[in-house]
Amino acid sequence: MEAALKWVSENQQMIYIVILMIFLGIEIIGRVPSVLHTPLMSGANAIHGVVIIGAIIVMGRAAETNYLALILGFLAVILGTLNVVGGFVVTDRMLEMFKKKK
Are 67 and 81 in contact (CB under 8 A)? Predict the structure, then answer.
């Protein structure tokens, strides 16, 4: 328990930044008109590609005993991949709506 409290006190600023990023992201996404969600999804796919590569690098450089870094890296790879694939599926469906019917 003391180790967890020590880690929280050492990384307090980083924790605050992550919490603020979550709230800011929710506010920004919530105020975007629905017409713009698909173009923004395409941009998010590129960003999540970078997240996936970063997570792979973190996992590759983490020590074998650093389970926190390995678990977080693994989750980042899985969630980033799901977001990229889902974004491409949504973008493809949206683009299909604009094709002329035969």
Answer: no
CA–CA gap between residue 15 and residue 20 (Å, rounded): 9
pTM, to two decimals: 0.56
- Same domain assignment for residues 76 and 98: yes
Closest of 45, 48, 52, 53 to residue 88, by C-alpha: 45
Q: Do residues 80 and 51 share a domain?
A: yes
Using CA atoms, how far apart are residues 75 and 51, in angstroms rounded to an integer? Answer: 11
- The predicted pLDDT at position 38 comes to 64
Q: Do 94 and 52 belong to one domain?
A: yes
- The count of structural domains within the chain is 2
Answer yes or no: do 93 and 47 share one domain. Answer: yes
Residues of the chain with pLDDT under 70: 34-42
Distance (Å, whole) CA 39 – CA 98: 14
Supply the pLDDT for residue 78: 93
Instruction: Find the domain containing 80 and state its range.
Output: 36-102
Contacts 24+ apart (CB under 8 A), 95-102: none
